[in-house]
Design a protein that fits this description.
By secondary structure, the chain is an alpha+beta fold. The protein is 20% helix and 30% strand. The protein has two domains: 70 residues, Type Iii Antifreeze Protein Isoform Hplc 12 (Alpha-Beta Complex), CATH 3.90.1210; 133 residues, no CATH class. The chain is elongated, with a radius of gyration of 26 Å. The termini are far apart.
C-alpha cells in the first residue's frame, strides 16, 4: 500500500512545483515587460459586466481586479480604484472580461425607471433611424456609430443648406446623403412608434416597421444638430463602427454621384 502512495505523493509534489515555476515565470515576464518603464495599477474586468451595473457593485462584488501596466499604454481616464463618490453611477454599456475600466464607461442612471444610463456630461436624445440593415437585436446599447443624413439641399450650389422640407422626392429633385456625426454612443434601441403613436407591427400602411427608435448620448451641440435634423425631416441611417473604422466628413453622395460620377 505504501509503495502505491509514494508515487502518487511524488507526482502531486512535482505538479505543485511545476505550477509554482510557471507562476514565477509569468510574474518575471510581467516584471521584464515593465522594466525601465513607469507603471500604474489600474482596474480591469475580472468577468463580464452587464450594462447598468452600479459602481458600488463593481467595487464590492468581485467584478474587478488590479493589474500593472505601462503608463504610456494607458488612456488618461483609466481608473485606479472605484471610490465611494462614484457609487451612484452605473456602467453605460457592457464591459467584457479583461477590458480596461475607464471613467467614461460610468454614467448617471435615469430615475424614471427606464433603466437607461447616460454618460457623464451628455444628453440622451432619441431619433427614428432607418432599419433596413440593423434591427434591435443587432444594434445594441454600447455600440458606437456614425450617423448619416439624407436630405434635399435648398440650392444645388449650396449643399450645406438643407431644404426646409427636409427630404423631397421627385423625378428632377436631387438629394444628398452625407455624414452628420461620428463616434456616437448608442444608449438604447427599440421599435419606432407609428406616426399615430402606436408601436409599429406588421406590414401595415403608415407603420414604422422599417425604422428603429434609437437613443444616443450626445453633448449639447451635437444634440442640437440631431434635433434640428429630425425637425427638418429627411432620413437618418447609422453605421456601426469597428476598432479600425476610418470615418471622416466629406461632401457626401447625391443622385448624380451614386455610381461614382463626379460630385
Amino acid at each position: 500500500m505504501a509503495r502505491r502512495i509514494i508515487p502518487v505523493l511524488i507526482s502531486v509534489v512535482l505538479a505543485a512545483v511545476g505550477t509554482g515555476a510557471v507562476m514565477l515565470y509569468l510574474r518575471s515576464a510581467d516584471d521584464r515587460a515593465l522594466a525601465g518603464k513607469r507603471a500604474r495599477t489600474v482596474l480591469v474586468a475580472d468577468k463580464h459586466i452587464p450594462a447598468g451595473m452600479s459602481a458600488k457593485a463593481l467595487r464590492t462584488k468581485g467584478y474587478l481586479r488590479q493589474v500593472r501596466m505601462p503608463v504610456e499604454t494607458l488612456p488618461e481616464d483609466a481608473l485606479e480604484q472605484v471610490s465611494g463618490n462614484l457609487d451612484a453611477l452605473v456602467t453605460t454599456a457592457p464591459v467584457q472580461r479583461g477590458q480596461l475600466l475607464l471613467r467614461a464607461m460610468l454614467g448617471t442612471a435615469l430615475t424614471n425607471g427606464s433603466g437607461l444610463a447616460i454618460p457623464d456630461g451628455q444628453l440622451a436624445i432619441t431619433a427614428r433611424v432607418k432599419s433596413t440593415v440593423f434591427g434591435p437585436a443587432s444594434l445594441r446599447a454600447g455600440a458606437r456609430v456614425a450617423i448619416f443624413y439624407t436630405y434635399t439641399p435648398a440650392d444645388e450650389r449650396k449643399r450645406d443648406v438643407v431644404s426646409g422640407a427636409g427630404l423631397e422626392k421627385g423625378r428632377d429633385i436631387n438629394s444628398v446623403t452625407r455624414l452628420l456625426m461620428t463616434d456616437v454612443e448608442v444608449i438604447s434601441v427599440g421599435p419606432a412608434p407609428a406616426q399615430d403613436g402606436a408601436v409599429a407591427a406588421g406590414a401595415t400602411s403608415g407603420s414604422a416597421q422599417d425604422e428603429l427608435s434609437v437613443t444616443f448620448g450626445l453633448n449639447q451641440v451635437d444634440a442640437e444638430r440631431l434635433a434640428h435634423a429630425v425637425a427638418l425631416g429627411g432620413e437618418l441611417n447609422v453605421g456601426v463602427l469597428g476598432d479600425s473604422s476610418n470615418v471622416k466628413p466629406d461632401s457626401g453622395v447625391d443622385n448624380r454621384s451614386l455610381f461614382g460620377s463626379p460630385r
